[in-house]
Write a structure and sequence with these properties.
Pfam families: PDH_C, PDH_N
Number of strands: 11
Order of helices and strands: EHEHEHEHEHEEHEHHHHHHEHEEH
Mean pLDDT: 92
Low-confidence stretches: 287-291
Structural class: alpha/beta
Organism: Paenibacillus chitinolyticus
CATH architecture of the largest domain: 3-Layer(aba) Sandwich
Bound molecules: 1,4-dihydronicotinamide adenine dinucleotide, 3-(4-hydroxy-phenyl)pyruvic acid
Number of domains: 3
Number of helices: 14
Shape: globular
Distance between the termini: 52 Å
Keywords: Amino-acid biosynthesis, Aromatic amino acid biosynthesis, NAD, Oxidoreductase, Tyrosine biosynthesis
Protein name: Prephenate dehydrogenase
Helix content: 40-55%
CATH superfamily of the largest domain: NAD(P)-binding Rossmann-like Domain
GO molecular function: NAD+ binding; prephenate dehydrogenase (NAD+) activity; prephenate dehydrogenase (NADP+) activity
CATH class of the largest domain: Alpha Beta
Strand order of the largest sheet: 3-2-1-4-5-6-7-8
């Protein structure tokens, strides 16, 4: 029997618990300092057992997941050091930054226990165990940052367990991780928040700003609704990297400023062109790297039951639908319903069938 103890059963901790719970020979223990949270995680069946005792959860564990905010990780590691952990206990975390936690674990020198940094590169702007889902990590990258002296067998032990998340495991150096994730996740979060706050200021004198805000604004600012406490910790922790990235951001924005001042139409076009070309190459994680999906877009009439009819028709013709998404904005795709299939042939057949049966534009 493998006992997994999860500290911080929120969005990420809860989602991991749901991935592991009920799997052969696994028991999941959830820890919270708050007795009501412990009650909730057990009642919602996110964990097998819950406890407010950090020591009990730690000493029972074969594998420990630290799923608390980045700013609390080092304190948790220091407390773990004071307990009698099981021999060979594996400790990992899910923090959005890696260098500081890896360095802290190295300094603490656990005896007979191993620390491997981890970061599931999937999440949401929601937080708390209510938002947890066993599907959260499917197809996403899950970064591991083992130290040079971490036994390969331990990394493999963790990777084997993480297979339950259906994420793709990738090993990255901790410093490199923080540079890259700073650029692709932390900087965009700051930009989204700054942009929303800019518009919020204008909106104070004219509510039309908010009311006219269209799909593009909502798309680029979704992550501005992320949890303030979680993000406060991430940004402060990765501040050295972020300050450098903000210098580069200023540089990018000043390119636009210059193009506008010079009324350089061609230059502006070029900016959109090169960005569009690069963006097309960014893999859509929803599809997954290993199993790409083939999309069609259907412009369907907005009346009740239509989606059900489409699904039934496809099922009747044995055209397996892998994903279905209602697109909120009509601005950037030619339709409102995205239907994804495993191969091009199925997508083509579905497309022909829908045009024929419903006279809808596909
Ligand atoms: N939100 C996201 O999309 C992602 C977050 N992460 C990382 O996962 C970790 C957890 O984040 P979420 O699950 O999103 O947050 P969350 O707020 O949903 O969960 C955090 C949990 O930690 C507990 N906690 C324990 N000690 C705490 C303390 N000292 N201060 C505040 N809360 C404490 C909270 O009660 C809560 O159950 C963070 O380190 C974050 O950087 C990683 C990938 C994605
Ligand atoms: O929802 C999004 O787009 C995210 O960016 C989610 C996310 C948040 C924090 C992470 O460390 C990793 C992924």
């Amino acid at each position: 029997m493998t006992t997994i103890s999860i500290f911080g059963v929120g969005l990420i901790g809860g989602s991991l618990a749901l991935c592991f719970k009920g799997k052969p020979d696994i028991t999941v223990i959830g820890h919270s300092n708050n007795p009501t949270s412990v009650e909730n995680m057990v009642k919602r069946r996110i964990v097998d057992e819950g406890t407010t005792s950090m020591q009990a959860a730690a000493e029972a564990a074969d594998i420990i997941f630290l799923c608390v905010p980045v700013g609390a990780l080092e304190t948790y590691l220091e407390r773990l050091k004071q307990f009698s952990l099981k021999k060979g206990c594996l400790i990992t975390d899910v923090g959005s930054t890696k260098l500081s936690v890896v360095q802290c674990a190295e300094k603490l020198r656990f005896k007979d226990a191993y620390f491997i940094g981890g970061h599931p590169m999937a999440g949401s702007e929601r937080s708390g165990m209510e938002a947890a889902s066993s599907h959260l990590f499917e197809n996403a990258f899950y970064v591991l940052t083992p130290g040079t002296d971490t036994p390969v067998a331990e990394v493999e032990r963790l990777a084997k367990l993480l297979a339950y998340t259906q994420a793709q495991i990738i090993r990255v150096d901790a410093r490199e991780h923080d540079d890259i994730v700073g650029a692709i996740s932390h900087l965009p979060h700051m930009i989204a928040v700054a942009l929303v706050n800019q518009i919020r200021t204008y909106n104070e004198s004219n509510e039309l700003y908010k009311n006219l805000a269209a799909g593009g604004f909502r798309d680029i600012t979704r992550i501005a609704s992320s949890d303030p406490f979680i993000w406060r910790d991430i940004l402060i922790n990765n501040r050295t990297v972020l300050l450098k990235l903000l210098d580069d951001w200023d540089q990018q924005i000043s390119v636009f400023r210059e193009l506008l001042e010079k009324e350089d139409a061609e230059g502006i076009e070029k900016q959109f062109e090169v960005a569009g070309t690069f963006r097309k190459q960014v893999p859509d994680r929803r599809k997954g790297m290993l199993t790409p999906l083939y999309d069609i877009y259907a412009d369907i009439p907005d009346h009740p039951g239509m989606i059900g009819q489409i699904a039934t028709l496809l099922g009747k013709h044995r055209l397996n639908l892998s994903n279905l998404q209602i697109i909120e904005s009509r601005l950037d795709v030619p339709g409102v319903l995205r239907l994804s299939f495993r191969d091009q042939e199925t997508a083509d057949r579905a497309s022909a069938l829908l045009s024929e049966q419903f006279s809808i534009h596909v």
